[in-house]
Design a protein that fits this description.
By secondary structure, this protein is α/β, with parallel strands linked by helices. Helix content is 30%, strand content 15%. Strand 5 and strand 6 form a beta hairpin. InterPro entries: NamZ (IPR008302), NamZ_C (IPR048503), NamZ_N (IPR048502).
């Protein structure tokens, strides 16, 4: 029997061997440092822009790269600003570099700033959901770089929801900062792949003039699980919140709480007037995450989803609460215009209000999803 066990171990050894670790674009400096030599560089980055344990800004300065300034997206350069809170121009205390806001009075970078640069780097961890606004900031930076004649370098990072292609494809009449591209809610692409698609499909002005370079992840497949080393924003603190975000983000267009102002944002659902079960929580003012969260200081009852297995997009939560609100003669979508912007269409809201089944709703997406799947093919960097 001992020889049989030895034989089995020999056969299984290659399968049991650890995979080569995933390396982000930033973790492959040999591929991009030569492109920065002698160049004046700007960075669109935040707290997720790491090279191992070191921030990309500090790493580049250590490598004698001439960093001129930092562009800050929603949540700010250090990732400690509330969702939707205006980000002001400032100066980084550690490096003394100027920080230019891309989430203040304007979402577009000033061309006069870009004209000081030769290259702008985008390196931000995304979560693969269309209404997460980092890809909108990338869009505006690409457009400004094209207008200014500045090269754009995207250091790619894995998509933690990369295995999923789901949800309605955005209709352009519902285009906004929470949805700028005709892509599904879950598009299954990395920021590097999406940048290539934005340029290739001419979704920005002067797309043909943009000099775009993407440094891909190494050893990455979109279906591999990927635990983010740094939370991408204050209210997505862990992998459960990131997995639930595609399904719970729609509740931002309702009077309900998704847990902002608690230790478990985007992992619970609650309301103060009626509920689905006895689980309770209370949102409170939480600096750096939610200063004035919905239903602040109220006892809420609803659903605890912290341990619920979840994959991709589910409509069950919306449909359950829609029925509960209707039974109390209440309107769930109290911000219908915002709901339609999140969904990229008014059809989803109307289908849910009408009482269509989840399968009926999903069936209505399939044609557009299949067309998008073919459309994105030329821009993919990793196997499907």
């Amino acid at each position: 029997m001992k020889w049989l066990l030895t034989l089995l171990l020999l056969i299984m050894a290659p399968l049991l061997a650890a995979r080569d670790p995933i390396l982000t674009g930033a973790e492959q400096p040999e591929r991009y440092l030569p492109l920065l030599a002698g160049k004046k560089v700007g960075l669109l980055v935040n707290q997720t822009s790491r090279v191992g344990e070191q921030h990309l800004v500090d790493f580049l300065l250590q490598q004698q790269v001439q960093v001129v300034g930092i562009f800050a997206p929603e949540h700010g350069f250090r990732g400690d600003a509330d969702a939707g809170a205006k980000v002001e121009d400032s100066r980084d205390a550690r490096t003394g570099l100027p920080i230019w806001s891309m989430y203040g009075a304007s979402k577009k970078p000033d061309l006069s700033l870009l004209q000081q640069l030769d290259v702008v780097i985008f390196d931000i961890q995304d979560v693969g959901v269309r209404y997460y606004t980092y890809i909108s900031s990338m869009h505006y930076m690409m457009e400004a770089a094209a207008a200014a004649g500045v090269a754009m370098l995207v250091l790619d990072r894995p998509n933690p929801n990369g295995a999923y292609l789901d949800g309605p494809v955005l209709e352009l009449k519902f285009q906004s900062f929470v949805g700028m591209h005709p892509i599904p809610l879950l598009h299954g692409m990395t920021v590097g792949e999406l940048a290539q698609m934005i340029k290739g499909e001419a979704w920005i002005a002067n797309a043909d003039k943009l000099q775009l370079t993407v440094i891909p992840n190494a050893n990455y497949q979109r279906e591999l699980p990927y635990e983010l080393p740094v939370p991408p924003s204050p209210n997505l603190p862990n992998s459960q919140a990131i997995k639930l975000y595609p399904s719970l983000g729609f509740f931002e267009a309702t009077p309900m709480s998704v847990g902002r102002g608690t230790p478990f944002p985007f992992q619970v659902l609650g309301y103060d007037q009626f509920a689905t079960d006895e689980f309770s929580f209370m949102p409170v003012s939480t600096p750096g995450a939610a200063l004035n969260p919905p239903l602040k200081d109220k006892q809420l009852y609803g659903e605890d989803l912290r341990q619920v297995a979840t994959d991709g997009l589910t409509l069950a939560y919306l449909m359950r609460w829609q029925q509960l609100f209707a039974s109390h003669a209440k309107v769930l979508f109290t911000a219908p215009d915002f709901m339609d912007k999140l969904a990229g269409t008014d059809k989803l809201r109307l289908q849910i209000e009408r009482g269509d089944s989840e399968q009926q709703i999903r069936d209505s997406w399939q044609g557009a999803l299949q067309r998008f799947k073919q459309q994105r093919q030329p821009y993919l960097l990793y196997p499907e």
